[in-house]
């Protein structure tokens, strides 16, 4: 972000290095229910980002002293795989991962009806397999879908997007080069139903006007991504194999030990 360079990030036609217009998102693909042992799971591809999320809970919080008698605690853990970036990333939590885990956890907590599950924990594991800028928002967006897949009651699925400043222009959804050599990056996440802002950060400098322009653009994109989240959930529950499982369960309930086929 602070790096100064002569790299040209926007060409004479106003197109960015990956060919996008200033207000264009990278391609986004969301898949729900990708892990068998988790209570809820999701996989997101967002530009060059590949992130998988597993949700466990609500389950009895352990160790016991962490239990809150009036609500569930939300533990989010953001982790970047050693192979997720160009140069091997040293495994384990660094300052950045601890910060991102904290802000994602706080955001999720503000959407979940935590008071419905006293003494429990809801554990959210965000594993970044490939990173290309914007992973905190992509991870949070996928985490909300995984929570919904786990059946955890929420105000709505949190969704977000970042905008920033590149070559003096405000652009949507920065990629890695834009994040590295741009002038500012502003990740934003909202609860669409209530319009609450649950995550907002700023790296770099913007004027007030630029800031407002960035927020406006991110919010609009977030509402678009919100639809992708819902479509992904619907797609899981209309997949043929899922229907088959439901049918088998129903048959087992009806016939008991009668299992000839
Ligand atoms: P976000 O991924 O939410 O944009 P940052 O702005 O901190 O968060 O990081 C931007 C990008 O920088 C990441 O998505 C990743 O591609 C890259 N990056 C972050 N940490 C490292 C690291 N330790 N080594 C190499 N690249 C990294």
CATH topology assignment: Ribosomal Protein S5, domain 2
Ligand species = adenosine-5'-diphosphate
The number of domains: 1
Named CATH architecture: 2-Layer Sandwich
Order of helices and strands: EEEEHEHEEHEEEHH
What is the overall silhouette? globular
Return the structural class: alpha+beta
Low-confidence parts lasting 5 or more residues at pLDDT below 50? 256-261
Mean pLDDT: 93
Q: Main sheet: which strands, in order across?
A: 1-2-3-5-4
Task: Give the CATH class.
Answer: Alpha Beta
Separate helix tally: 5
Portion in beta strands: 25-35%
Estimated helix fraction: 25-40%
Sketch the major β-sheet: 5 strands, mixed
Rounded to the nearest angstrom, the radius of gyration is 20 Å
CATH H level: which superfamily? Answer: GHMP Kinase, N-terminal domain
Describe the structure.
The protein is of the alpha+beta class and 261 residues long. The chain has helices spanning 95-111, 135-149, 176-181, 208-237, 240-255; strands at residues 28-32, 40-46, 49-60, 73-80, 120-130, 159-166, 169-172, 184-191, 196-200, 203-204. The structure holds adenosine-5'-diphosphate. Adenosine-5'-diphosphate is lined by residues 85, 89, 96, 131-136, 176, 179, 185.
